[in-house]
Design brief:
Hepatocyte Growth Factor; alpha+beta; YutD-like; 4 helices; 174 residues; 6-stranded antiparallel beta sheet; elongated
């Protein structure tokens, strides 16, 4: 198969692909994706192209506070990040976006950053719900486990003692 035939096949599949999101441009820097408002805060080298973004976007990205898109070898790659106040791993926080761009993106490549204006807000840490425990039930289980458990017997030494024995002898006199 020739390279030109492969490219044509890829283009026809891209056109036939069903879009997973309803994306509308509100103004130059604002998008509405599945009812959520997004603000385009960084657009380096005009990396944001609406048609390419529509083909790549997946609704799973609506959970993230920030979406970073970088273009390498003609492909758009998306990665989601959370706000710094969220209780997530440090490599998923907004402060690590720059590290991601340096480590995983081509040098000088085009990229963009979208901010989800309607991302779920940070919830306060609530105390975990505790259930009342039935103490009688726990005690009976503990007693049963101890009663049924066989007692441990000391193990016999199976290996012979390989210590050398030395005796001190007096030198015979000349």
């Amino acid at each position: 198969m020739k390279h030109s035939e492969i490219e044509e096949l890829i283009d026809t599949r891209k056109d036939a692909r069903t879009k997973l999101a309803d994306i509308k441009r509100v103004d130059e820097n604002t998008l509405k994706i599945n009812g959520h408002l997004y603000n385009l805060i960084v657009n380096k080298n005009d990396g944001f192209e609406l048609g390419q973004f529509e083909n790549t976007f997946n609704p799973i990205f609506t959970h993230f506070d920030y979406i970073v898109g970088d273009i390498g070898y003609g492909q758009l790659r998306l990665k989601g990040f959370y706000d710094d106040q969220r209780n997530v791993e440090s490599d998923l926080k907004k402060s690590s976006i720059q590290d991601y761009l340096i480590d995983y993106c081509n040098f000088g490549s085009s990229y963009f950053v979208l901010h989800n204006l309607e991302a779920s807000k940070v919830k306060e840490n609530k105390k975990p719900i505790t259930r009342p425990r039935n103490r009688n039930h726990q005690k009976s289980n503990i007693q049963k486990n101890h009663e049924n458990k066989p007692k441990r017997q000391p193990q016999k030494q199976t290996k012979p003692n390989h210590h050398r024995k030395f005796t001190i002898r007096q030198k015979s006199g000349d």
